Amino acid sequence: MQRDTWETIGDCTDIISKGYGLKISHYEPVRKIMKLVTNKGVKAVKIVDTSYNRVEFSFEAMEHARKHGFKNIPKVLPTRDGKIGINTDAGILMIIDWIDAKEAKYNNDLNLKLATEALAELHQASKGFKPSKNASPRVYWGKWIENFNMRCKDMLIFKEAAYSKKKKSDFDNMVIEYVDYFYSLGIKSIRHLKKNNYAKISEKYKKEKTFCHHDTGNQNVLITKDNNVYLIDFDFCILDMTIHDLANFIMKNVRYKEFNIDKIDFILNTYQNKNPVTEDQIKIMKAFMEFPQEFWEFGSRYYMRKSPVEKQKCTQRMRQIVNDIPTIEKVIKKLPG
Questions:
Q1: Would residue 103 count as lying in a domain?
Q2: Are 19 and 88 members of one domain?
Q3: Is 74 a domain residue?
Q4: Which residues contact 125 (CB under 8 A, 6 or more apart)?
Q5: In 84-199, beta strands by DSSP E
Q6: Bridge partner residues of 91 (DSSP)
Q7: 8 Å CB contact between 237 and 57
Q8: Which domain holds residue 52?
Q9: Among 4, 104, 248, 276, who pairs with 221 as Cys (CB 3.0-4.6 Å)?
Q10: Distance between CA atoms of residues 199 and 271, nearest Å
């Protein structure tokens, strides 16, 4: 959600007062949310651009984790009529408890340790999750070979689109130069998933009924002065094997930074102290990490969206992605499989 969403804060405060019975004495935007000082304490307002049923799924996942041992998730304040949010033109408006904490700094060893432990504990608490009939889950158990095949085909579409332009942009030229490399990584990822019994291992997680946070950037990991760790923003939560979450978490910690091979060992060892991972599972993680997710993601954004600002952002990120190729290769070489 963009900051300009809050230009109509007057309308939002009226909705909040009527829907929640809150009296607001002060408000201020903080990143993508609004901080409120109310008669019932400090709260955070967020607007989620999705369906109510999808928000219901995320909410149920959070409550399941809380009930099964992972307490450090902000509580959602119900509306006067007991709902988890209010439908607005911009999306579902939700109010959650404000957490007085700072974003994790993954370049700090203690912060990284605490964040990794929290992720392992969340994954343990996720087991046995069964969404209600009212929820609209995103189900990914066993589907990544199919998804990656489709995304590899998308990369060929990017290639065709770039070549077809008479006047090529910097982004088009980068796609032309690097698409074959990233496509080959995608095909290799699929081959390694098949080779390392992805379907069988995924079925195990399906039986355990696990879910992933699926957006573990440092902005979604808050650490208090007492070193309590809170995980926030479950908007992209999915039903999937938790090692996929762990693989993504590792990649967030090694991309676009000075590469430190010891960091992978540090994360794996810390995680395994809370939630053991087998060598066969690490092989699946490696296959996930091989897939060029960001190349596909920003290629999709660039060729599907018309906004010049969005295209500029995509070009900047693509430069980072291609510059990061040596790091990707080092990570892949580090892991078994």
A1: no
A2: yes
A3: yes
A4: 64, 65, 66, 68, 69, 70
A5: 86-88, 91-97, 102-103
A6: 88
A7: yes
A8: 3-98
A9: 104
A10: 23
